[in-house]
Amino acid sequence: MAGSTIGRILQLTTWGESHGPALGAVLDGFPAGMEIREEMIQAYLDRRKPGQSAITTARREADRVQILSGVFEGRTTGTPISMVIHNGDQRSKDYGDLKDCFRPGHADYTYFRKYGLRDYRGGGRSSARETAARVAAGAIAVGFLSQMGIQVQAFTRAIGPVEINEEHFDPALILTLPTAMPDAEANEKALAYMKECMAAGDSSGGVIECRITGLPAGIGDPVFYKLDAALASAVMSIGAVKAVEIGDGTAAALARGSENNDAFCLDEKGRTVKKTNHAGGILGGISDGSDLILRAYIKPTPSISREQETVDEDGRPRKLFIKGRHDPVVVPRAVVVVECMAALTILDAMLVNMTARAENVLAFYS
Amino acid sequence: MAGSTIGRILQLTTWGESHGPALGAVLDGFPAGMEIREEMIQAYLDRRKPGQSAITTARREADRVQILSGVFEGRTTGTPISMVIHNGDQRSKDYGDLKDCFRPGHADYTYFRKYGLRDYRGGGRSSARETAARVAAGAIAVGFLSQMGIQVQAFTRAIGPVEINEEHFDPALILTLPTAMPDAEANEKALAYMKECMAAGDSSGGVIECRITGLPAGIGDPVFYKLDAALASAVMSIGAVKAVEIGDGTAAALARGSENNDAFCLDEKGRTVKKTNHAGGILGGISDGSDLILRAYIKPTPSISREQETVDEDGRPRKLFIKGRHDPVVVPRAVVVVECMAALTILDAMLVNMTARAENVLAFYS
Amino acid sequence: MAGSTIGRILQLTTWGESHGPALGAVLDGFPAGMEIREEMIQAYLDRRKPGQSAITTARREADRVQILSGVFEGRTTGTPISMVIHNGDQRSKDYGDLKDCFRPGHADYTYFRKYGLRDYRGGGRSSARETAARVAAGAIAVGFLSQMGIQVQAFTRAIGPVEINEEHFDPALILTLPTAMPDAEANEKALAYMKECMAAGDSSGGVIECRITGLPAGIGDPVFYKLDAALASAVMSIGAVKAVEIGDGTAAALARGSENNDAFCLDEKGRTVKKTNHAGGILGGISDGSDLILRAYIKPTPSISREQETVDEDGRPRKLFIKGRHDPVVVPRAVVVVECMAALTILDAMLVNMTARAENVLAFYS
Amino acid sequence: MAGSTIGRILQLTTWGESHGPALGAVLDGFPAGMEIREEMIQAYLDRRKPGQSAITTARREADRVQILSGVFEGRTTGTPISMVIHNGDQRSKDYGDLKDCFRPGHADYTYFRKYGLRDYRGGGRSSARETAARVAAGAIAVGFLSQMGIQVQAFTRAIGPVEINEEHFDPALILTLPTAMPDAEANEKALAYMKECMAAGDSSGGVIECRITGLPAGIGDPVFYKLDAALASAVMSIGAVKAVEIGDGTAAALARGSENNDAFCLDEKGRTVKKTNHAGGILGGISDGSDLILRAYIKPTPSISREQETVDEDGRPRKLFIKGRHDPVVVPRAVVVVECMAALTILDAMLVNMTARAENVLAFYS
User: Residue A307 phi/psi, 5° resolution?
Assistant: First the structure.
């Protein structure tokens, strides 16, 4: 309830601060018997690891995950999977200047107002480092979903004004290009744009899109636990996200019903499908069998290399120049975080859904 | 967990179908001792009542609320407030044709795939009528927030391509104009646009904005229960919403850090405030004392007066012409629903927040 | 969180006061497609209905249940099942004297201290009438469990010092004898004991036992949601219960390990079973395939026909003589309540359990 | 939901197995600003540490706690407090024989049936070692409660047939005697009894009582989150507990209303108090200002030094002789666990209770 736990059957609890000794995740409710290896999780963590390109922070973190419980002889046991990532390169001294000063665009002021005190080192709990714990847990969910033929793939759709061209879409590029864009040309333009931003001591935001393919129809719950509502919450809980949309999203507000409705028809195998997918794979909060499409809009990194105006804890105006090491754009590193939050949400909904029909319950227990 | 309950301390459970005998809300955890009158709640329900203008459904529903528990001698008692609204004008026969046929853009298909059966009359549980129960509960939250100087006000920002002009903003118009726009000129244009849509047997979507003023800094919780994440979930759970944004929202993705950061400064009374409000009143998931701004993007009503292609339960292609009585645009009636979901979310976060500091707990119990 | 909702997948919310217009239950998460009839539920409500014998209150309540949602064409739809029971025979005037006076053994004082005000009519929310809502919901759970071959049967084990003799055990008597004992001789003795109590203006408590047969091994969850912990909570939440035990319960504290351990062996069909059942069907919080046995210890009704000492809201000593109409012993009417709380808890655990193994999840979605 | 998390505002998640690398606790929702030191927590852990007397297991565990998050400059920050305890003396080889064999009285069989596989080393997740994590978290709750003048004190009431004499009650002895009894004479008798049990290769159970003094009236919530229901669940979730009672508990079933009712009167300062405390400090699920009294009945340790009959995973009968190192009675070490579970439950209820009255909410935010 205090906010570090999410999910219903599959519950993720994260803990840890940017400059504390470690951070971690406890994933409870994961079904027993799945094969699991630390390398599998590590591969996901490596995707959000800092220091990988010219457009990410120079902070060096190995981000090595260690599984402390819930796995026995290479398989999940059904008990909580506890994972820890030790913090290495903590230059807390970079934050001495910020001790009593509120950085614009950060959570310093709001944490101080809520709690009366705060861990000022690198944002403490509000740091994007917290998402490493989400990725550790999400990697396990992604792995399990893939065994059911469900692929969760996020990518960078835009960095600042540079957007991908759908016609160039090449999924293989997502994991190789520094922008995590599936389009080599857009990648080049985005890098050029970032170079310009960085030269000006500035930062950029962007857009992450996530596509889930292979999801069966019928997943999600009515009313408050609609699949889109659960996804919106899970994705909006990632620090820098300022908007979430499903399918046509904001554009749907401009469309007419006759344009926005997706007609039902039969595919070549006689299965009911939608002719179009303006809905983004969800109708009435429940998956409709089409690809699930969501987009997260990310604000520009608030830590910029320019003097900024602010106020300190004692209510005095201050000029602030943030040193530290910061991502000029968090979008490429956040791609895997969106993917992981989507996967955890989808898997949780699928587990809950197993109980939706009396006939299935009776069959299970007969 | 099955989805009809939302909230942590303040928990709302709704129940009921479009064409069943009644629908209702149970609001648990509301503090004891607040004065409450059915008229207060009724006034809110009247704002979303059908049949009020040329651009809403002709279905006639009195939507009279009756309080069945939790209020004694005009005050809340701390126990669950149960409210019921009886369904009156249920022309279920309108739905006979739709019995085994999936309406495009509706939840017919997804409910059928999830549950194996469905109440086909008017969408059953997935009907927008369910939101009447949310409004009954939300009205109580709005009333309590206003006693704390917190105003929650939503309005229509756009209908299709017609958007309000901020310079014309007159809040008094929201409750009087049929579009719920705070701009008389935009209202006229929107009505003209709707007339054209309706003449073409078509429908429109739009945008609802909600502004919360007077909210103190420090409300909301870290990580998964960020105030924006909770609001995104609460608002996205309203049937037709396809995108939710906070503050500059999608536009933040295009801005640079130096533009998007809100500098802190002192106001004339020496209090820390933000110079601008790109953040929309939330930093790190916690309110920052500025106005909280959110926007919901609403899709066009899927029930249109045109022949549509679809498939039936037996997997046969069908031509469908929806009779019934439908809103050509749901935006004006959904304004109060967004307001209510925001109010419930904010009040819940404020209740949780009372326990955030050890000093406050010690003071309370000393 | 405020306490009127229980369960994880299968969630019951109850609402209503003793002397308000109605009380009710909302049961969410119940699987779709089960046949359901009001008569089935009514039969359970009739078991706890007042006015049925010389040892229950003379208050007359028809306790007619009405289903308002979640059932369509005789089957559950997967959406919340809302049920309402209107209060009829509300002689609130009986409670005028008690308006500002705290009845010993009741919740008057504690509600007043918690909320600052209270509905003084018949205990308001703390009245045992609230359990009618639990029975309405529980009846549905019992019905579904019986389709899986699981029988939940509670009975009166003791009234005051009169205990049943296991050798006389005849389950057919439970529903016919006024004490709900499965032993005609003990029933007679108990009635005689109650006659004596009532003649003295006094009341009695007793013991309810609940046996669940046919429950498969493997139901329940580790650590905090152990099946016995969930049952203890569900049963202790019934107003007058002061102790809950599983299997040998309190007696286990006196036994030695060699006596208390239940050896595993094979039954005639070669299945693993326990030779004895000191554990009461639960090991490590998970069902072991033996009968699940629990007992609830019920305190004597606090409303007695004798003058009692108390204090009023203004802190003045008072002599109190409770008029009204009260059960001299609540045990017989509480039997069905224990049964229903056990059934709801078991069914919820069974639904959660469907997700325990990866192989089952994979099979479900293949 | 999967069972490793408990609480509403104050949420404890535990993780870890008996013979894994470590176990731990994540305590979320703890108010910010409380001073905290590892030594304070360590002192509690030392009370349940093995190897401290002739009647506890010879397993040697330092049980050193390390705080990994949520504390900054010696104070809680409001974010999750993560604590880890590394497992040291893991003689997993002792468990090789038990690999495919179900120990009577343990959770081996039920975990196997639920999950299809299990960590057989020392009970894995079902081991009593899990309670170390509870104690780490509970120590923090106990410390905070004591700042509010609330003392939570548990002690051994009985070991097998040896019960304490109330007249000898000396709380100072609880922390010094090996039995955790507050009675030196009973301690001697209990040690003699245990010596006899151990000589016979047998084990014993017992009774733990917990008294909470200084708790204000008004704490707890109606219906399903009654304070006694929450305590019953929290305490029953401790592995070996087979019964929980409040106040007179099981004895209340034998009493008459005139005996069991606690009259209200005024104390010397004119405050409303109860003349007696049969209720054990809870009326209608809410604290009444008297001492809160609860008792947990503990079964004898199932690991005994005698040959036992059992069955293996392949359904073959087996003779079993458990080697390993086991507590012949877990009662003395479980005392602090009961204390901690009670403290966590009480503190959570107190946090929730801060929101019970509208006047308090208004005052907080004015």
Answer: -70, 135
Contact C217 D110 (CB under 8 A): yes
Inspect the interface and report whether the beta carbons of C360 and A362 lie closer than 8 Å.
Answer: no
The predicted pLDDT at position D165 comes to 98
Q: Is B74 left (phi over 0), alpha (psi -120 to 50) or beta?
A: left
Contact in structure between C136 and C85 (CB atoms under 8 Å): yes
Residues of B in contact with A104 (CB under 8 A): 261-264
Greatest C-alpha distance within chain C: 71
What are the backbone angles phi and psi of residue D88, rounded to the nearest 5°? -105, -75
Query: Within 10 A of A178 (CB to CB), how many other CB atoms are there?
Result: 16
pLDDT bin (cut points 50, 70, 90) of residue D91 is: low
Q: How far apart are CA C65 and CA C82, in angstroms?
A: 10
Mean pLDDT, each 10-residue run in order, chain A (366 residues): 94 96 97 96 91 76 92 97 89 69 95 94 91 98 98 98 97 96 98 96 97 98 98 97 98 98 96 98 98 98 94 93 84 97 98 98 97
Between A143-157, B76-90, C151-165, the lowest mean confidence (pLDDT) is in B76-90
- Strands C317-321 and C307-311, sheet pairing: antiparallel
What is the predicted ipTM? 0.97
**Site from B215, B354, B357, B366 to mutate, D interface, most D CB atoms within 10 angstroms:** B354
Please report, to the nearest 10 degrees, the dihedral formed by the alpha carbons of residues A224, A226, A229, A234 taken in order: 110
Find the helix or strand (DSSP H, E) in which D145 lies: helix D131-147
Q: Which of D2, D8, D119 sits opposite A28 (nearest CB)?
A: D2
> CA–CA separation, C225 vs A79, rounded Å?
12
DSSP letter (8 states) at residue A94? G
Q: What is the rounded average pLDDT of the residues B43-70?
A: 86
Q: Report the side by side order of strands in the sheet with D11-16.
A: D5-6, D11-16, D22-28, D81-86, D65-67
pLDDT digits (tens, 9 = 90+) for C32-89: 999 999 999 999 999 988 777 878 777 777 889 999 999 999 999 999 999 999 998 6
How many CB atoms within 10 Å of residue C231? 28
pLDDT of residue D49 exceeding 80: yes
User: Which A-chain residues 67-96 have CB contacts (< 8 A) with chain D?
Assistant: 68-70, 72, 75, 77-82, 84
Q: How many CA atoms lie within 13 A of A335 on its CB side?
A: 28
Q: Pick the residue of D9, D12, D110, D309 with the most C CBs within 10 A to test the interface with C by mutation.
A: D110
Please, are residues D63 and D38 in contact by the beta-carbon 8 Å criterion?
Answer: no
Residue with tokens 């498969």, as numbered in its chain: C216
| Closest approach of D215 to chain C, Cα-based (Å) | 13
| Helix C331-353 × helix C38-48 angle, to 10° | 140
pLDDT in tens, C261-316: 999 999 999 999 999 999 999 999 999 999 999 999 999 999 999 999 999 999 99
- What would the two tokens of residue A250 be? 């904001």
Nearest to B5 among C13, C23, C124 (CB): C13
D195 touches chain B (CB under 8 A): no
Smallest Cβ distance to C69: which of B15, B28, B68?
Answer: B15
Structural domains of chain C ordered from first start: 5-365 (3.60.150.10)
| Residues near B284 by beta carbon (within 8 Å), at least 6 away in sequence | A106, A107, A110, A111, A123, A126, A239, B222, B226
Q: How far is B250 from chain A (nearest CA, A)?
A: 5
Confidence band for D255, pLDDT divided at 50, 70 and 90? very high
pLDDT at A54: 79
* pTM attached to this predicted model: 0.97
B257 touches chain C (CB under 8 A): no
